[in-house]
Amino acid sequence: MKVDDVPRPACQDIVSMKAQVPDAIFKKASTLTADAPPMLDMGAVQKAGVLLSNRSPHSLRGCEAADLINKAKRPILYVGASHCPEVLAQLAKKAKIPVTTTVASLLCRRLIPLAPCHLHAKCHGMGIFDEREPLSLHMLGMHGAAYANFAIQNSDCIIAVGSRFDDRTTGIVAKYAPKAKAAEKEGTGGIIHINIDKSSFGKVVQPTVAVWADTEHALQALEPLVSAGDREDWLKQCQDWKEQHAFDYVKAAGGQIKVQQVLAELNRYLHEQDVFSKKNVFVATGVGNHQMMACQFLRWIKPRTFITSGSLGVMGAGLPFAIGTQVANPEAMTILIDGDGSFGMTNMDLQTVKRYNLPIKMAVMNDDRQQMVWVWQRLFFEGRYISVTNSNPDFVALAKAYGIHAVQCDNEEDLPKVIQEWMTHDGPMLVDFKVVPDICLPMVAPGKALDEMILLPDRDAVLGTEEAP
């Protein structure tokens, strides 16, 4: 039986809320109506040459996007769910445009073809542009790179590719992209929105030019039309921000370890051992601090390799995602980065890992807390803590009870050798990393602009130097 022959639930990929929510709730005013013609109809455009020869009104209006890019002094590519790393890199390098990516949802049946609709994995923008490239500004947003957030706010031309201006990437919308909005009025820039879903246009941010297209087709069409211009000052400014505000953390006292430290060591091992050239590597996560820190401290180099629950924030999804990913990609390395709270919700699926001897490398970042929620209660709810302390089992004993090799690590001296054993073990393995709780920084607080961040130097001022009991 072929995958396509497997019966699908009627819900397929999308669960409609309209049965429970009145239609009027969904009918919100927009200056770009749902029935308006697309700015650039790419249905007939299969390659860039067609756009150059096609003189239809839609194609001519589509050239406005290239014109804005060429006029801009400080453009940035803001990339979400997409599937064309080669053409994206080609355009970015040709036009000298920095690239930032999102944790933006994309349903992936290609990755986990047999998953039912309610277990779809989410693939994300991470890795669509190799983060080792100088033009990469890594992830932006609420817990994204400060340098990416600064670049968005100072850019005169934001090219949104497959992204949807989620609130986690915009901050308060009224203060979003002030320089791009000013450039739009002057005719020297603005916001270009490329998306295959035309209902996303104007839903959050009104674009200067909306390009209704598959992202690959759109970028193929734009690439011959864009030029580099004089952007050396802009690239230098982005690089300066990148150096001044690199992801970092305050080390724990007494040789104890933190999530960031574990991830940084894992990242070092993966790249120094050139694991990515030897096999496909997928990373699945639960939801919480460990998820955002994985975005920050792992360098993503290939698209559709970060399997996590983005905007929905489904705790407990990490282990099922890892199982589905490993089953669909039996020759790949699948790494699970989970938190103790998320892992506690679905760890009974260790029996599935053992039953099929799935060689998943599982990490539990165990700080005995729902730490992200704890931080929010501390900062925004006057320290009124509720349901944020976990009573965890012995995760090593639990894994061993299922016949899975497991060890614990709680100090920086043992960390490198534990990482090596974990990554090279033949078969499934779990590591219980006993980590010191920490805040995930940078952080854009509720009601703040994207560049109004809590940064690492602010840590003690906002969190205090002593933790509450």
From TrEMBL:
GO biological process, one term: L-valine biosynthetic process
Domain Thiamine pyrophosphate enzyme TPP-binding: 286-433
The protein's required cofactors: thiamine diphosphate
Domain of life of the organism encoding this protein: Eukaryota
Keyword Disulfide bond among record annotations: no
MF terms (GO), sorted A to Z: acetolactate synthase activity; flavin adenine dinucleotide binding; magnesium ion binding; thiamine pyrophosphate binding
Alphabetically ordered keywords of this record: Thiamine pyrophosphate
Domain spans labelled Thiamine pyrophosphate enzyme central: 121-222
One GO cellular component term: acetolactate synthase complex
Record has Amino-acid biosynthesis as a keyword: no
Family named by the database record: Belongs to the TPP enzyme family.
Protein name: ILV2 protein
Species of the source: Symbiodinium pilosum
